[in-house]
């Protein structure tokens, strides 16, 4: 038999589609999904399937309740005893890029826009979309951003802090992995020749239409504008409402400074310095001395070198909304 595709979606549900080949009849077989560490193994038995030459069959499984998602699949039968194990790939919706980090997820390639946004209007839809060359969706509070992602359908949500960080593909100490972006009034502070299509709805020539910068403003996976343009809301999964109190290790209780050390699991600073650290792209961190802080990532169109893949601010509560603040959804 021939496996036509084996994919995992953003909900970590997996499926395999295969076709019987040659003069064979496939009656009884078992489809075996397994995680990389073999901690999760799901065996689906199909009896009396009566599949013959050229028949196509698809078998699906729900996501594991805990642990790693399924990463391989094998079809075992007496008729085809030598079938090999096939890797399961991540399948993302249009406008999204996939990452194998964090158990596998898809994230918007572009800062979220309203689904009816254009290059001259933000639109009015309450459904988020990932679109290139349109006005980004700003002036949105934390609950509304999450609702806009949920409105896209089952499995969509506001990006988590860890997903957002993984999407940057930034490696500490390797500046070649740090994307450039609109951090200097519609151009890159790293190279003033790098410019974008300016958002005509904004009062000043400083904000860009989504994804209109050069290739240096996107990751290898095609995720754009993670450095500057507008701050992006994210949330954490280890707090009840996704925001952080002063007891959370991400919160520095009113301190600010340049990122100087990093928690590689939670994806946040563990130490701040008074001078910039090039290992973290000179990115900075700020927190107000309050509980219930919403998390913003990436920096702004005027943040200069202090914006980028390690930049974080905890300055406002979840109800705040500004023209400087947008978001991104994951699947």
Task: Please name the defining characteristics of this protein.
single chain; 331 residues; mainly beta; paralog of FGE (formylglycine-generating enzyme); four-stranded mixed sheet; 2 helices
Describe the structure.
The mean pLDDT is 92. With 331 residues, this protein is mainly beta. Strands 20-19-21-23-22-18-24 form a seven-stranded mixed β-sheet, with no helix packed on it. It has a four-stranded mixed β-sheet with strand order 7-2-1-10, with no helix packed on it. It is elongated, with a radius of gyration of 23 Å. The chain has two helices and 25 strands. The two termini are 31 Å apart. 45% of the residues are buried. The protein folds into two domains: 89 residues; 237 residues, Alpha-Beta Complex (paralog of FGE (formylglycine-generating enzyme)).
């Amino acid at each position: 038999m021939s496996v036509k595709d084996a994919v995992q979606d953003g909900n970590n549900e997996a499926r395999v589609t295969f076709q019987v080949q040659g003069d064979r009849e496939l009656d009884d077989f078992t489809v075996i999904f397994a995680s990389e560490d073999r901690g999760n193994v799901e065996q689906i038995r199909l009896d009396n399937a009566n599949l013959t030459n050229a028949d196509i069959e698809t078998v699906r499984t729900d996501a594991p309740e805990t642990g790693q998602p399924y990463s391989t699949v094998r079809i075992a039968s007496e008729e085809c005893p030598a079938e090999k194990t096939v890797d399961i790939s991540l399948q993302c919706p249009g406008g999204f890029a996939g990452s194998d980090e964090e158990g596998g997820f898809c994230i918007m390639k572009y800062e979220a826009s309203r689904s009816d946004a254009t290059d001259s209007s933000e639109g009015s839809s309450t459904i988020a979309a990932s679109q290139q060359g349109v006005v980004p969706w700003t002036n949105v509070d934390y609950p509304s951003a999450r609702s806009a992602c949920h409105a896209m359908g089952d499995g969509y949500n506001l990006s988590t802090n860890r997903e957002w960080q993984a999407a940057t593909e930034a490696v500490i100490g390797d500046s070649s992995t740090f994307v450039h972006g609109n951090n200097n009034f519609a151009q890159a502070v790293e190279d003033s020749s790098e410019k974008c299509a300016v958002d005509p709805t904004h009062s000043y020539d400083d904000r860009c239409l989504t994804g209109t910068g050069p290739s240096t403003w996107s990751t290898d996976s095609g995720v754009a504008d993670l450095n500057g343009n507008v701050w992006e809301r994210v949330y954490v999964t280890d707090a009840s409402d996704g925001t952080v109190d002063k007891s959370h290790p991400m919160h520095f209780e009113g301190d600010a400074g340049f990122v100087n050390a990093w928690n590689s699991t939670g994806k946040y600073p563990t130490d701040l310095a008074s001078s910039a650290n090039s290992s973290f792209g000179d990115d900075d961190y700020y927190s107000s001395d309050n509980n219930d802080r919403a998390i913003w990532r990436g920096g702004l169109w005027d943040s200069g070198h202090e914006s980028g893949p390690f930049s974080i601010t905890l300055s406002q509560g979840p109800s705040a909304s500004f023209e400087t603040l947008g978001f991104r959804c994951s699947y």
